[in-house]
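In response to reviewer comment 3 from the previous cycle, which asked for concrete evidence that the modeling workflow produces usable outputs, we include below a single protein chain processed end to end. The sequence was submitted unchanged, and the resulting structure tokens are shown without manual editing.
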Amino acid sequence: MQITSYLKTKTVQIAAWIGFLLAYLIASTVFSLAGDYTNDILKARHVLGIGFVLTAIALALIAWRYGQQLKKHNPRNIGRTKVTRKVIYQFLLILLFMMIFQMFWSWLISQHILVLPENQKAVASETVQMPLWNGIFAIVLAPIFEELIFRGIFMNYFFNKENRLNNILAIVISGLLFGFAHELQFDANWLMYSALGCFLSFTYMHFRDIRYSIALHFLNNLLSII
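The workflow returned the following structure tokens.
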């Protein structure tokens, strides 16, 4: 009975996690579609409005579920970490390592060792079409969505026991899924995205506060676009 109950719980959690991911993807897709109607301002505004509504609903749902998760089951004591000088130094150190990694990745692309990922091409194209709104989505909204889904909800659904093995597995598996969400084929760029995901997962696990992984994700996207 215990095994059956466990499998049923995990099946429901997997389905729910996929549902949250789909809600985010649908909202972001509709939002970006407004760029296809730049020659028709009225239609672009209508599509953009629908995108805003779907984004608000999806974000509210995912944030609510994350909060409910922590109230019901929070073995890692995730919450709000007190901001101290030590915490700030640690955060900046992680940011520095992440930026060094990003520069190395950019260098590999500039040397034609790796090709520019399709995800980055799409983001760049959408930003050109609607620089303000797509910039806001890519820099501000996407980090919140992705951290709640790939770090917050995922790590509280799966590998959620407070021990070293589960913590390591949570960081690595979350990073790999993050990589696959940005690069749909198993290649070098998938590994690079996965490594970025692991940076973010480590940040969430280290500080036990999702605000830090969101902030790191925000800064990474900002610096990548500038």
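Residues 2-33 form the longest helix (32 residues). We consider this sufficient to address the reviewer's concern, and the full set will be provided in the supplementary archive.
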